[in-house]
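Subject line: Sequence and fold of a protein, written as structure tokens
Enclosed: The protein record, placed directly beneath this head.
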Amino acid sequence: MSDGVTQFLTTVNGFTSIGSTELDAIDDEIETRNFNPNDYIIRRGEAGDSMHVIRTGRVRVPIVDAGSGKTKMVVHLGPGDMVGEMALLTGEQRNADVIAETEVQTLVIHRATLQPLLSSHPPLARFLTEILGKRLEEGGGIEKVGKYRLLGKLGEGATAKVYQALHPGLNRVVALKMLSHTLVYDKNFRERFLHEARTIAGLTHPNIVQIFDTEEAYATYFIVMEKVSGTDLSKLLKVRKILGPDEAMDILSQMSIALEYAHGQGIVHRDVKPANCAVDKDVAVKLMDFGIARRIQKNPAQKRARMVEGTPRYLAPEAAVGKPVDGRADIYSLGIMAFEMVTGRVPFYSDTIRELLQMHVRKRPPDITRIRSGLPEGLVEFINGTLIKRPDERLTDWSTIRRLLSGPASGADVRSAACEHELISVRYDPSAGKEVGAAVEGLLRSLSRIDGVDVFHGRMVNVSNSDGSTATTAAPPESTLTT
């Protein structure tokens, strides 16, 4: 091809990052097409494996309401604009007609030509996927992702958007976390996003956000997860500044239960912080965002990481210097959280990340009792113990942590005549025993933190008799908790 096509493309948004030499290399793969007024450049419903860059002339794009079939608006486009990129990227049918208003010339780029450019030129990928992301939400937005029907957007961050959705078969409301289209072609972000789904899928605990499914649609990836009510702790702290000791200890206790379970499953979170702690109106806590979680290595390599991952204000000293980490790093981060929750500030702060990391490694944390007096002794001991620099000397024993965060005992005798009983019966298939056991264990631990509670935990088991009938018998108690 000739006639100044390469020079023209270097002026088109998205293609400006690609050198003319590289564009010359695909010159023969780009078609030029001419259209008369009222010609259809693209027809709605057609399969799409190419996009058009308008070189000369103007086109109109009628936007049709999916429900009524009526045109609700018309978009007018001209030189330098692109059409058809949505179907090219998603592999789905064209969702709108594109009609020439004047004589029009377009440059046609096919999927086989574009894909290598998207992988090797992130600015082009970001530009095209930003357009795609916006068009998905124009005029009613995305209506369906796989089998899930979208109900609206819940929020948006730098790397993902979160939607509320309904599983029509189960009538269950879920949250869909969508990887931002600006990062789809960033291999590191994409792998981290999918890694989060794989990691949490194996964790079933009442204090950890549950993953149900994954979907690939609209040229990006979705994680289908439990919809969490309430807000994250960082937003709560922005409003309230500090929390009362009892509330802080309750939240920390639930977070510690979640972390103990995750560590028991061989997972270290590596990004424990208020933003990853969801709290509802009843102060029920969920640990979220396992995006940089890793399997705990029994014999970790001593080679230090090239890049420090995590949030600098909450980073353990061993993580700050790039050493391999285990669950003790999460406990240090939980101690930083605790300090912030009751004082309104983190123990270490600097305008530079380098200095902040050095403070985690070398600087002694401030005396919390001088910042806020009257805190329970157990909470002070927990914070001081978890913020010890050396992992081998740090407070990491879960039974001690539970005791420190449980608060002073009331001395009430739960076996008195004034007690009340709450009976919960769970019937389940033996194949679900592991998940049920984890959920029950979480409930038992939560109850154990409440003063004046006596818990008996036993199981009823169906037993097959020799005549083919079944009988139900009581299994031995698995745990008894008395406070």
